[in-house]
Amino acid sequence: MPKADAPFAYDGLDRVIHEKARLGLLTSLIAHPKGLAFADLKQLCGLTDGNLSRHLQVLQEAGLVEIRKGYDGNRPQTTCGLTAAGRRRFLEYLAVLERVVRDAAEAAEQDHAGRPEPSPA
């Protein structure tokens, strides 16, 4: 709920989630509830191995994702998925982000409604 004295503070915007690459990772994972292989996440989000590993580490430390190591046949495979808490926090974050977009759109509408249209030249 926004504070009456600071309606545009958006306290629910979580810095861990808000970073561009992590936002993409969480969006990919929420769209794939069974999880994704490391290589698939790398491709979907356009990240290097190192960048992906680092962002996944941050998300794992925050309790948002789980990383499972296993094998696909004889080949090692890393799979990532959202935790229940991660899914909940991401959905809460999206609700705040929707409020940001709604507030900005309403402000733009009000600003536009208050301005006279430019006269044709």
Automatic annotation (TrEMBL):
<dbReference type="InterPro" id="IPR001845">
    <property type="entry name" value="HTH_ArsR_DNA-bd_dom"/>
</dbReference>
<dbReference type="InterPro" id="IPR036388">
    <property type="entry name" value="WH-like_DNA-bd_sf"/>
</dbReference>
<dbReference type="InterPro" id="IPR011991">
    <property type="entry name" value="ArsR-like_HTH"/>
</dbReference>
<dbReference type="Pfam" id="PF13601">
    <property type="entry name" value="HTH_34"/>
</dbReference>
<dbReference type="InterPro" id="IPR036390">
    <property type="entry name" value="WH_DNA-bd_sf"/>
</dbReference>
<dbReference type="InterPro" id="IPR027395">
    <property type="entry name" value="WH_DNA-bd_dom"/>
</dbReference>
<feature type="domain" description="HTH arsR-type">
    <location>
        <begin position="12"/>
        <end position="106"/>
    </location>
</feature>
<protein>
    <submittedName>
        <fullName>Transcriptional regulator</fullName>
    </submittedName>
</protein>
